[in-house]
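User: quick one
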Amino acid sequence: MKSFTKALFTMSTVALLGLGVAACSKPAPKTITLRLSLYKQEIAKQFKDLTDAFTAANPGIVINTEITPNDGGAAQAAAAAAGKLPDIIQSPAYAADFQLAKQGYAVDLTNLPVIKDVNPDLLDGVTYEGKIIALPTDVGTLGILYNKAIFAKYNLKVPTTYLELQQVAQTLKKNKITPFAGLLKENWSIGHFMELLHGSMLGAKGYDGLKGSAAIAKFAEDMNQGKADWGKVVDLKAMFRIMDWYHSNMSKNALNNAWNEEVAEFASGKTAMVVQGQWFINPTIAAEKAANTNFDIGFFPFTWSNNPAENKFFSSADSTFVLSTQSSPEKQAAAEKFLNFLATPEAIKIWTGEFKLVPAFKDADLSSMPSAFGDIAASESKLGSYSWEFSLAPDPTWENAMKNGALGYVLGKMTPDQIAASINKSWKENYKN
Amino acid sequence: MVINKWKSRSSFILFLLPALAFYFFFAILPLLQGFWLSTTNWDGTAPWTPAQISIPVFEKKVLDQTPNPSDRALLLKYYTKNPAAGMYQRHDLYGLDRYRLLMIFSARGIVNPDFQNIGLKNYTDIFTGNIDPKFFPQNYHQAKFQEGDPLDNIRLISQDEWQRRFTNHIHDQTELSFLYQAYTLTPKGYELNKSFIPLSSTDIQTALTAIPGLGDAWNDFYGDVTDAGAQLKTPGIVDELIQKLGPVKAHKIAPSGLVQLQSLGQYAYKEAYLKHLVAHYWYVAKIRMGVLVFTIFFTVFNVLFVNVLALLLAFALDTKIKSRNILRSVFFIPNVLSLIIVAFIWQLIFTQMLPKLTGYSDWIMNPDIAPWLTVLVATWQGVGYYTIIYLAGLQNVPQELLEASSIDGARVWTNFRKVILPMMFPAITICLFLSTAGALKTFDIIFALYPSNSTAVGVDNVVINIFYDAFRDKHAGAATAKAVLLMAVILIISGIQITLTKKKEVEL
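Assistant: Done. Structure below.
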């Protein structure tokens, strides 16, 4: 026993010495560790595959991913205030990116090689004072997802007008199927209805002689200058009547539903449709496997008008990556390598195959994506799309006036006029340039 | 004597001095910093000193103008020249250097417009009410029916509601008689006549599309008729609108189609008229507590329930029941649980269990119930802790005193009032103090129960409001001012309460 202990002691001493000698004789290659904040929590698990693939291709650079809450404005504010901004910041396009750029936190990426690969339509959301200050990574699309199996069972055609949608809902209800899954226990999903309705009506009706996304952009510019009135540019009463219709066709339990419950409601086949973005597809496919429903998901534009040409998807650059100017030059260079890596076929494969998100790059191969993405492409090539309205509003206006206004309306606590007044006030107060 | 002197000196150095130092660094300094921040218009994200600054400006306006070599060294330590970007870029910066750099830059006149001294404006804004109106109580009308809701929601209206919302409120005779045309009184209440609007709005629109010759004009017609109904125009408007229709003017519609158009138009008009009337009058006048009153509500009821329940539980556990040790653990366990777990458990109860048990599904998001739910969860979570303190206090009441008073003829109630309660006052003092201060600064329970929706539901207390003000609405300076005031309020309330309860304490 004694000799055994002695042997163990000798062995470990030798091993330790050896390690020490090894460490002294061979200086380990310097590893650069980058901090990346990610707000798209739904891809948190799969995101590691991307960073691992990057490290494999670029030995010596490691990326640590930190998850921040959805639309992590608050987390970023705290990090910036504490002087501890991550090296790579995931941030929504438009207002959130512009805010970072305005304060000088965003590295100018105009000359980064990867920018040439980005779909030029998406650069609008990341261009601040003529400079490109973020890399758009994926396209966000809002519309109505539907269960193809239920539609086939009741012989329903994909609606192209509001009346057809109402007819679909009526048939579904006759067959004891709730038309829409709902999520009202949090405020963001109902918040999207505000921009879907307001943006569509504004884009269709036109603003200042412009139509579609251009009208929305011009309206946002006038809001920035305090020259426009959110509640006066569209027929507010008609807008909220449509909101009521959607609300009254949601599942009865919607007020008790958060994200997981809404996904479950749709994936289990209890409801036939859901007003959501493309980010809903991947979790639904996973939930379908668990519920063993395995239906195909279809996608059609948010439908509010009886003129089929006015019902369009909402598509814009969704998330982007901003590089922090507060990082050391080596870290900035390493982070730029990561951004360049994102346009490689290997990274795009992870982006489409695992994240199920449409990459922002030209000619990306979408063959591995679920069929719902084909529906987006088909509709957009025919009708075009609207750009997101909320991204153009100052962050606090979207986070508080719009989201809480919409939820307050559903709870019967706020009237449309009060919501419009609070959006106007918040937009004016919070737009600073 | 010498030893005693050493003892006191060493205890001063070993314990008191570090404690004072800690107190200075972790209480006084943050407080001073907080007060300073509360005099700025900081939005919480704006850098105090530029995150990057163009090379000529930095070199000519800052570096060349800074005579002190240590200041120059500091500037160059944090700002690195990046010729490619044409900028000097700053590295991560925290600690005391942040303040030194700020002083250097403000001495050179380089100030961020989003981080400026604005004096006591944040405080005057609070006291003059120049802040988010949600901070103060307000009247509001809670809508029971919205114009776009389906008719099915108002097929049956109880007699009581009918009386309260309609007959007592509507003074316009046309409006009232319209409602009496639409509804018939049955034993169940006022029921919508099936023949009044026999088709669903979807069916009305579908039938309109089927009228030969009308074509796409149906959509505008339906929209116009609905708008006319919602504006409470007279029924004649339907015929007027029909005459204006292009296909009608062009005689494209057969007489039978016209008859159908008229009756469908009337239905659509009546539906819009009815929905508008009901939406307009069917509301409940309520008061929104606002942040301020909700904080008071939460504090008062939380302190009351926690202390009364804890006292009762302490009495129950002080008896000689067999399971008292297990029960003590049972009551204390909620206090050991992480608050996130507590919120998670109660969310499940509110969203899954209660709806199934009661058949009523609207709990957690109901603005009337929500304030009580937050009090319930906070009480459940806190009561075990105070029970332990009260139990200790109760066990300190000398038995001989109780026996003596019993021999003197005191009954249970007199014993409690004259012996137990005065002897327990030290415990009451500490419990009241802890629970009041704790309730006033509650954050986690409400935040975890209502992750993004507390503002809309109306359960923001002052601390949550400060958090959202600083990080969501980007008013860090104003939020800090509120936090400083909250601290003052807590100090004042606790001070008053301790002096009051201390007076009642007795010593043997």
